[in-house]
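Section 3.1: Structural characterization of target chains.
Under the original work plan, the team committed to producing a structural model for every single-chain target entering the pipeline before any wet-lab resources were allocated. The record below documents one such target. The sequence was received from the expression subgroup and is listed exactly as submitted; it comprises 438 residues.
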Amino acid sequence: MNRRAGSRARDAVVTGIGLCLPGQDSPVFTADDLWSVASTGTSCLVKNGVYYGSVNLPKEMFAERVPGIPEFFSRHYTDAHRFGLVSLTQACADAGLDVQRDFEDAAILVGRGGVDANIDSYLAVLRADPATYPIAQALEMFVAAEQAVTPSDVALVQGALTRSRGANFTVSCGCASSALQIGNAQRMIAAGEADIVVVTGVDVFSVTLIRNIQRLLSGAQHAYDAMRSPDMPSLLPSFDALMRPYDRRADCINHGEGSATVVLESREHAFARDARLYGQVLSQATTRDGLANPLASEETGKALVSAVRRCLGDTWDIAQVPYLHGGSDGNVVVTAFEANAVRELYGPASRELLMTSQEGCFGHNGAPAGCLGVALTLLMMNRGQVCPTANCEEPADCLTFDPVPGTEPRPLDFDYAFTFNYQVGGVKSAILLGSADV
């Protein structure tokens, strides 16, 4: 391995991938686990009233993967804590780093989109009457509240596990949360602020809440249609059908839960310890559609095009990028603006472009999507194969790209790729990735 010098030393390279995602027989923890699911277009969604991707993580399995945490703290952990800690330790082990010894000066960054995991702890404190609450349990209530009533909860416990003295903060930008943290990590490394940055995305969605939303949507459909303007998205008809990104039958979103973590290092730091490199994060940009409606997203794709061009700058050209990892979750509005953006970026050549989404494997899991997109895209780049779009069998007529339908990966030798993430309200994130040596 040849040591790079100069500005290349501050490249942000990815050296570790860790997961805690829905699986078929057991959770998906490793890069190999992820590949076995995504490369075959396998869906880990289970229907229980609604389709949902659940992580079955027994206490014993958590304790095995994250040992040594005092029970005084761990008994108050929510699923968000547990999922995030598991993906963190898996990523550190994958990078060949000791989670309790090698992160003293590291930055620990977390992305959270939802607050479902915090509700029970929040309500417990809110409803507790200090005048009658048992004194013996007051300390337990305090510890539970301090650890779990805010969206910054996962960063708190991850910082404690790693003993990190570096930056430790949470970003909340919906389903683009960890994508923004990937961008923050790349910029921190480039500026010399850190040599190791760990980024985790984690979310938990309440199935009860999803079912209630389903009922509310059914009741609100008529009223919404009567007042809907052209810039407002259509209500998705159900959560009880299977999500099918880029398919002509796509009409719904299925949610999921879990966590994804990536370890980024400066190239100099990674080379000094002879680390294995998955690839590198070259740039990240975020834009918004600019609409007055806080829930809408316009379909032209111009904001996504702008994010892509900001990432490319004067250094790269879109013709160098033969693969895009899409953020489609089955929403036809998302598919429309992606198709339009691809047409504008690639012109007639877009028909040969491969663009896929694996959200149908694990469900739309919110904040983990950014880290998951980086991890999976780099695995595809390393293996020279593009994973199929899970649950896509009949590509929609409006597509301006090849979504790789079916259950077989497509061979592709590539050194550059984009991965996209979006937040409700028109926010677009684009991350430009490169192979380790470009």
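Residues 1-6 have pLDDT under 50 and may be disordered.
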